[in-house]
Specification:
α2 packs antiparallel against α3 and α3 crosses α4. The chain is α/β, with parallel strands linked by helices. Helices cover about 45% and strands about 10% of the residues. The radius of gyration is 24 Å and the shape is elongated. Strands 5-4-1-6-7 form a five-stranded parallel beta sheet. Strands 2-3 form a two-stranded antiparallel ribbon. Strands 8-9 form a two-stranded antiparallel ribbon. The chain is built from twelve helices and nine strands.
Amino acid sequence: MNCPKYSTLILDLGDVLFTWSATTKTNVSSKTLKSILSSAPWLEYECGRISKEVCYDRVGERFALQPSEVAEAFSQARDSLQSNETMISLVHELKKQSDGALRVYAMSNISKPDYVILSNKLADWSVFDQVFTSGNLGMRKPGLSFFRHVLEATHTAPQDAIFVDDKFENVFAARSLGLHAILFDNTANVSRKLRNLLDNPVRRGKAFLSRNARQFQSVTDSNIIVHDNYAQILILGATNNEYALFYQLQSKP
């Protein structure tokens, strides 16, 4: 049995395990809403240093918006939150296949009130061994102190951890500490990368053979399929399983 190279998976929540829309039925454009998320008042709010009301007041002043309209825009954005079931199912699968060896943690820049709302968007949080949020800890990504806290609290060496996040700055910060960091661009790409890093290669190979059974044929450089026996015999010799063969073996009379 191969020993897994990585024992820990650390995942961002927003835009990785959850999706949302910045388009609302208010005068706050999606561009402005996203700009607010990187503004100084919002960063203070995410760390629990100011209340939601104070945050909306300061955001309204900075972006020339009514605080009530800011509140309504974020209320609609929160309503759009949906869990990324494909990613969540993959994490469950990888954890199950590890026989309990893989530990999974969430690490998110999110305020206490918003985390309460987010918690109700996912029925089963058991996939996480622990959730770390900026609202509870008073620190946020890409601050290295947040990463160090998570590593120390989980007794994880940086080289044993995989980190997934949709923000470049967070990925770079994780890499600077020695974590294997993956930038989340889309579910399919990240799923493939996680399987390559965490899934058993023998199991994946057998699954590939099963998915593509009776489709293994030789192809020339000019993309011409050659229906030969030799490739089929090689497959049989490597797998000792006739299910993958394009041609059926004939018994001697």
